[in-house]
Amino acid sequence: MDVKQQKLNKEYQIYVQRKMPKSNLLRDCILAFLVGGIICTIGQAVNNLGKSYFNLKTEEASAFTAIVMIFIGALLTGLGVYDDIGKYGGAGSVVPITGFANSIVSPAMEFKKEGYVFGVGSKLFSIAGPVLVYGISASVLVGLIYFFLK
């Protein structure tokens, strides 16, 4: 790289630093903690409801909770509310299972105009797909290691 190009790169980096919005890390961490905690508290309430009101066993109540929370995340994404929660709560909205529902529904909604096959069908797992692939691969690898070490 020549001297002129290096100077341009440095000037560009300075420009980017000036234009980049400043974030308050402590505030962002607290909001992420609170939003994630609220979502998890709602999940625990759904679990308790399943156990007490519907008389579900622990395993059944856990499945019930996952289904309800995924539905809530998908519904809020469809209504445009989950994006606002994500803007406010940052990573706190991504960690719970509702963030998974959001990552599946968002691209599907974005590409709906391209049709159900080439739009929704092909883009449905564009964000969650790599997470699923690597998550399943890692669990298989850990399972094999556990199997051979045991």
Automatic annotation (TrEMBL):
Pfam families: SpoVAC_SpoVAEB. Keywords: Membrane, Transmembrane, Transmembrane helix. It comes from the Bacteria. The chain crosses the membrane at residues 25-46, 61-81, 88-105, 125-149. The keyword Disulfide bond does not apply. InterPro entries: Spore_V_AC, SpoVA. This is Stage V sporulation protein AC. It comes from Caldicoprobacter faecalis. The lineage of its organism: Bacteria, Bacillati, Bacillota, Clostridia, Caldicoprobacterales.
